[in-house]
Write a structure and sequence with these properties.
This protein is of the alpha+beta class and 157 residues long. Helix content is 25%, strand content 34%. The protein is built from three helices and eight strands, in the order E-E-H-H-E-E-E-E-H-E-E.
């Protein structure tokens, strides 16, 4: 599991939202719809530069599955036509430790089971903000996703 530190700027994003259980069929369908919308609006450069962010907004331990909000977001630099499919908001940015993980069930489950231990080992303090999935088309031929774990300001030794 490869990792690095990255600071993301405060920036405008467009997003689609689904309300329902995380990992649901509807979330996968939303990804297809979002990718088509990106292509239809000629935002492939933004996609290639920053990838798609998957942002779970609710803690599933404290929120009923049917009320969990999940956004797919894209940093945008150019013009687009919403057609009511996307909304716009400001992404607050911040510092993240990035974990690159094969996008297969076992690897993703291992990530979630070991993240607390890895954070302690690296002496990183979790910032109160969602852990984000990032899907980039430029990572390589393997299906890979990145988990962006929000951390307090990182000061390398």
């Amino acid at each position: 599991m490869k990792q690095e530190i990255e600071t993301l700027p405060m920036q405008k994003v467009v997003y689609m939202r689904n309300v329902g259980p995380y990992g649901s069929k509807e979330n996968f369908e939303m990804m297809r719809t979002f990718k088509k919308w990106i292509k239809d609006n000629h935002l492939e450069n933004d996609l290639n530069e920053s990838g798609i962010l998957g942002i779970p907004l609710d803690d599933p331990q404290n929120t009923p599955p049917e009320a969990c909000r999940y956004d797919l977001a894209l940093f945008v630099s150019g013009a687009y036509v919403s057609h009511g499919l996307v909304q716009e908001r400001l992404f607050t940015g911040g510092t993240y430790v990035i974990f690159e993980v094969p996008h297969i069930t076992e690897a993703v489950e291992t990530f979630w089971l070991t993240i607390d231990k890895k954070m302690k080992e690296k002496q990183l303090k979790l910032r109160k903000s969602p852990i984000i999935e990032r899907f980039k088309t430029t990572i390589g031929t393997e299906q890979v996703c990145e988990f962006l774990v929000p951390i307090e300001k990182y000061l390398p030794i």
